[in-house]
Structure to design on (375 residues):
């Protein structure tokens, strides 16, 4: 990692990033990570931190220990300064966790550790000359009352920048950059691998093409209720129309879930037709991480969730069809009624004309009737 300090407006923009912590599991040969120095220098500070023995880096990417309650182990870390100036690094240890992106990190310095981060004893700082490496010893001491299972922490070398305007009425901006690695300790005792599925949600997104299927999204948390770190393989089987219609199965994997931690998983299934209730069966199977030896059965857990896939586009199409049918029927009825009315009117007019053209039965049109003499 490389970092070059920036002044004025650029550092003001960085104010919201105070106490940023960047933790890498290890740095490969030739790579480096940097943190900012105070703003009164233009030097670029780059450094690396790796597990080590008393002679220097030993090729490990992390420290992994197996200890009994009350036992301790001595370890080392190597801090390499790739810069052209001497740098004094702070050495910090803190509880570890897996962030939402699935990467390992350690608690920032403004949060108090309560777990394995408190088991690590190390000096507060170390000064490293330009282009030099210093080996720093540290100790991992397991408390007598530590519970069996995996306990994870991180240890890092840190540099913190200082901001401008630190006088009266001014502001001071500090950004913490750190590089380190994971320290995992498995406390001996009974191993209990156990996952659970929580906060299950399912939602259906229809296709507005009435002749196309929609998409189903299922999300859930995989929580580690046991005492060892585990991975997880998730399988989601979806069925609709009261179980008579099934879709393709979808899978998702989670690389690692630490004890007392959880990771969110999301699975999308396409080609789901909106035929009422859609049932999704989630099966999560625990897996070991990095070839861990877990002397216990890894039992899968199954959870079912149901959501409604309402066929809105199809209902809209049916509604439009019904409206058209009713409109055509009403138009035909109105046409028929007009025709019948015209026919009735024509019949009435015909009858009236026929009555007007008939001779009078009393002979009103005869000469006698008109008062003319006979003969």
């Amino acid at each position: 990692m490389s970092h070059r300090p920036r002044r004025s407006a650029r550092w003001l923009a960085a104010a919201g990033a105070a106490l940023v912590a960047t933790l890498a599991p290890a740095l490969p040969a030739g790579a480096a990570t940097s943190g900012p120095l105070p703003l009164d220098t233009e030097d670029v500070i780059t450094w690396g931190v790796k597990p080590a023995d008393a002679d220097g880096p030993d090729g490990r990417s992390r420290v992994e220990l197996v200890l009994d309650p009350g036992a301790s182990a001595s370890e080392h870390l190597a801090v390499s300064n790739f810069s052209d100036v001497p740098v004094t690094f702070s050495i910090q240890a803190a509880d570890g966790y897996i962030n939402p992106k699935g990467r390992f990190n350690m608690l920032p310095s403004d949060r108090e550790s309560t777990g394995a981060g408190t088991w690590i004893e190390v000096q507060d700082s170390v000064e490293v000359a330009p282009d030099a490496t210093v080996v720093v010893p540290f100790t991992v001491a397991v408390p007598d009352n530590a519970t069996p299972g995996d306990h994870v922490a991180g240890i890092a070398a840190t540099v913190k920048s200082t901001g401008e305007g630190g006088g009266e009425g001014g502001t001071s901006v500090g950004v913490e950059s750190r590089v380190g690695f994971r320290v995992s300790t498995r406390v001996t005792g009974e191993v209990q691998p156990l996952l659970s599925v929580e906060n299950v949600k399912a939602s259906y997104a229809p296709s507005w093409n009435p002749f196309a299927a929609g998409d189903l999204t299922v999300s859930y948390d995989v929580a580690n209720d046991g005492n060892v770190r585990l991975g997880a393989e998730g399988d989601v089987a979806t069925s609709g129309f009261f179980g008579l219609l099934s879709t393709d199965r979808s899978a998702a994997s989670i690389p690692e879930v630490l004890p007392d931690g959880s990771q969110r998983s999301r699975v999308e299934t396409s080609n789901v037709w909106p035929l009422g209730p859609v049932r999704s069966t989630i099966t999560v199977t625990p897996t070991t991480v990095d070839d861990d030896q877990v002397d216990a059965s890894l039992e899968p857990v199954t959870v079912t969730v149901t959501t409604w896939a309402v066929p809105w586009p199809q209902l809209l199409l049916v509604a439009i069809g019904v409206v058209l049918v009713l409109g055509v029927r009403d138009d035909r009825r109105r046409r028929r009624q007009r025709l019948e009315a015209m026919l009735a009117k024509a019949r009435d007019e015909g009858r009236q004309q026929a009555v007007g053209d008939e001779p009078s039965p009393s002979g009103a049109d005869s000469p006698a009737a008109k008062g003319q003499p006979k003969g």
In short: The chain has three domains: 8-187, 195-310, 312-347.
